[in-house]
């Protein structure tokens, strides 16, 4: 089937007319554009007209973007909250996907709150803390006085216990009577109060037209922070708010946490060959480098990156894409291994010498030789690092370049590997 150039131009003109019509209606009724398209998610191409600055392309993630837009439309249509859990190894593009999606929905008239455990200028994210999280949901500016904060908390709280508990979570000094009242509550009763607080916060956020709340780098959150966050994900509230949680599969997120059982899970897979090629060409063009001159380097970088977009871009800009591990990745691995207990670091080095894949009997050789007291515990710590994954009958490093980086690791004060 052949499509003429004139047909394509007419279709593009139609898209622009539809955009202008929708935007006029959206401004008149003071709603976001996707409200005018209730039976389907807003088409991705529409956002290109909405955004004055061209977005950094999110190549190879069309399916994921469609899923995100579909779920946002679903939340608006059904008028209840939903959580999406996106996970994948370092460099696979979680933050970039989130940034692209957030810019799209802002352009469509939505309001969002973005948090990251590290804090991020890429996605305009605040550093996550329980205090920051509550204040943002309450639409409290950082310049607000204590009196203004207390007034807002009083306005939003439906019970006196909820008011006192929220002030406590916001690190206010409570008076003696307030402290005594809260201290008399059992842990179960405190949890019930916290659930009521979560409901109050969701109601107010929806009132302020917040439709998206994102938390990046969730694997770095503390147990207390996760305990509070799960109040918002274990229940689907009658407010049209979409939560997106991003994490690397490590620590408490080595497997999908039980408290995210209601979430829509989205493992971020490696890019296919075509997407890698387009991303590599885009990266070179953005740097003003001639693509034809870098064909060999491009092919080598694609082969070694094995579908990881961040590793691909690092390899393209490195001086030796054929042999060297990307500097940023090597530094990450060096810091990770250096901060581990010595025995765990040695286990990683030993495993790397066995190959990209290794099995339980090989790990047993190491633990027996070292007279390890708790070999299963040590193996579990290895899995919780996110550098290794367990298959049905063996273990593998999470990426060939991670395996390579571990083999290259040199402990401080040592010149020979294990």
Short description:
With 418 residues, this protein is an alpha/beta fold.
What would you say this structure looks like, in words?
By secondary structure, the chain is an alpha/beta fold. Among the domains are: about 55-140 and about 210-265, 3-Layer(aba) Sandwich (Rossmann fold), CATH 3.40.50.300; about 275-325; about 330-410, Arc Repressor Mutant, subunit A. Helix content is about 50%, strand content about 10%. It contains 18 helices and nine strands. The chain has a six-stranded parallel β-sheet with strand order 3-2-4-5-1-6, sandwiched between helices. Strands 7-9-8 form a three-stranded antiparallel β-sheet. Strand 4, helix 10 (about 225-230) and strand 5 (about 240-245) form a beta-alpha-beta unit. The radius of gyration is 25 Å and the shape is globular. The termini are far apart. About 35% of the residues are buried. This is Orc1-like AAA ATPase domain-containing protein. InterPro entries: AAA_16 (IPR041664), P-loop_NTPase (IPR027417).
Highest-level CATH class of the domain at 57-139 and 208-267 = Alpha Beta
**What gyration radius follows from the Cα positions, in whole Å?**
25 Å
Number of DSSP-assigned strands: 9
Shape: globular
Q: What's the name of the CATH homologous superfamily of the domain at 57-139 and 208-267?
A: P-loop containing nucleotide triphosphate hydrolases
State the major sheet: 6 strands, parallel
Structural class: alpha/beta
Provide the residue-averaged pLDDT.
Answer: 87
CATH architecture of the domain at 57-139 and 208-267: 3-Layer(aba) Sandwich
- Spatial order of the strands in the main sheet? 3-2-4-5-1-6
Rounded to the nearest angstrom, the distance between the terminal CA atoms is 61 Å
Strand content: 5-15%
Unreliable spans: 1-5
The H-and-E topology, N to C, reads as HHHEHEEHHHHHEHEEHHHHHEHHEEH
Helical content band:
40-55%
Protein name: Orc1-like AAA ATPase domain-containing protein
Organism: Pseudoalteromonas citrea
Domain Orc1-like AAA ATPase: 58-244
Pfam families: AAA_16
